[in-house]
Write a structure and sequence with these properties.
By secondary structure, the chain is mainly α. Helices cover 75% and strands 0% of the residues.
Length: 269
């Protein structure tokens, strides 16, 4: 006799019931939880930065040095991972940190010569010969760069020229992205803490105000690349930043501690 027919397939599961009116409370609670986390972290970061500023130029410069080194290390980790995969010699990987130190020597040294020349000649090493030595700072930087270039040429290996030159190009680009802007921040700090705090506060104000206005009033999407950005947040952040710039500059420019440049490396403004 023929085999019995197979059993029919089980019926599909029923569709889920429509969401009840009160089920949106979970999403709303999560939204407010993220709001509290952002507000808390913002206040902690602003308070921590204010504490560093209260310690003077030295603490701010130390913070900038630390952030600069960490940023360069982050980019360097990407370069090292690719260099190991492609077989770039270790000496070429270390060259990036050597160039980082040389560029730091140039940027920091230039600011030190500009702001602390009087302190060097009158308190640290009295005499005119110190000014002559400080005048060779640019020449010393050039000599260090040429030494690095010679070291790079000596480490070239046949069959890996393209990889080694690509590694050098990436290292130079990382220095341009990190050290050059950071050296300008260092110069601003020595010219007066106000010139560091003012642009930094504008960034913080714009970002925070855009988030607040977008959170409470956001309805119209701004760009598809970032769907959570809204026109309401953009306009509210821009208007708040303009007002904050006027208030900040009018209030904080009255404090000599923030406006006066640093003239001694180990003294408060």
């Amino acid at each position: 006799p023929p085999p019995p027919p197979p059993p029919p397939p089980p019926p599909p599961p029923p569709p889920p019931p429509p969401a009840a009116h009160g089920d949106g409370s979970a999403a709303n609670a999560e939204r407010w939880r993220k709001w509290r986390v952002r507000v808390t972290t913002t206040l902690l970061m602003v308070g921590g930065f204010a504490a560093v500023v209260s310690l003077g130029h030295q603490a701010v410069l130390l913070l900038l040095f630390t952030l600069m080194t960490l940023a360069h290390r982050e980019l360097e980790q990407l370069l090292v991972a690719r260099a190991k995969y492609e077989g770039v010699p270790v000496a070429n990987r270390l060259l990036s940190w050597y160039l980082f130190a040389v560029v730091m020597f140039f940027g920091v040294g230039r600011s030190a010569v500009t702001h602390f020349a009087e302190w060097f000649t009158q308190r640290l090493w009295p005499g005119t010969h110190v000014l002559q030595l400080l005048g060779y700072h640019a020449f010393a930087t050039l000599a260090l760069l040429l030494a690095g270039l010679v070291g790079f040429v000596l480490t070239l290996e046949k069959g890996k020229y393209k990889l080694q030159f690509k590694q050098l190009a990436w290292s130079c680009m990382a220095l341009g992205l990190v050290v050059v802007p950071a050296s300008l921040w260092l110069t601003n700090t020595l010219n007066g803490l106000f010139w560091l705090l003012f642009p930094a506060s504008l960034i913080v104000c714009n970002d925070s105000a855009a988030y607040v206005f977008g959170f409470f009033f956001g309805r119209t999407p701004l760009i598809q690349l970032s769907p959570k950005k809204t026109w309401e947040g953009f306009v509210g952040g821009a208007a708040t930043t303009v007002v904050w710039a006027a208030v900040f500059s009018a209030v904080f420019c009255r404090f000599d501690y923030l406006v006066c440049p640093a003239t001694e490396p180990f003294a408060r403004a």
